[in-house]
Amino acid sequence: MESVQRRMTRLIPGIRGKTYEERLKELNLMSLEQRHIRQDLLTFYNIINKKMDIDLDGITEIIGKERTRGNFYKIRPKYARLECRRNAYFHRIWKIWNELPDAVVKKTSVNGFKKELEQYMIIKGLWPPII
C-alpha cells in the first residue's frame, strides 16, 4: 500500500514523472520515516526535560555521567525479554539519541532543540538541505 505522502506529492504540477525521492528533494520535505525519527527524538527531549510527565524508572536509565563521548544525556534501555518490548519506543530511539551531540540535547527550549536537530540532520545527510 502506497503512503499518503507518496500519492500527495504526485499531485503537484511539474513533478509527476519523478521518483518519490526526487519529489521530496525538490519540495524540501522529509520522508515519513525521517519525520517519525524526528518526532520520537522531540518526544524524548520533552520527557528528559520534564515537559511530559513520564517516569523513566523501569524503562530506561540515563547513563550520561559515565559517558566517554557523545551527549551528556545518554540512555540505556532496560533489558527486554519479550519481542513486543524490544520494539517499544525507548528501544527504538536510544541509539539515535545517544549519537546526538551535546549542542543539540542541551538546548533549553523546544524550538531551539528542533532547530539544532534539523541542522544536525542536514549535516548527517538525513534530510534534504534547504535549496
Structure overview:
It is a single chain. It is built from 7 helices and 2 strands, in the order H-H-H-E-E-H-H-H-H. The protein is mainly alpha-helical. The protein has a two-stranded antiparallel ribbon.
Top keywords for this entry?
single chain; 131 residues; mainly alpha; two-stranded antiparallel ribbon; 7 helices; 2 strands; 50% helix
Strand content: under 5%
Straight-line N-to-C gap: 30 Å
Average predicted confidence as pLDDT: 77
Strand adjacency order, main sheet: 1-2
Helix content: 40-55%
- Helix/strand/pairing category: mainly alpha
Counting DSSP E segments of at least 2 residues, the number of strands comes to 2
**Shape from CA axes?**
globular
Summarize the structure.
Helices cover 50% and strands 5% of the residues.
Question: What's the SSE blueprint?
Answer:
Elements: H1 4-10, H2 20-27, H3 32-48, E1 60-62, E2 75-77, H4 83-86, H5 89-99, H6 102-105, H7 110-123
Antiparallel strand pairs: 1-2
Helix pairs in contact: 3-5, 3-7
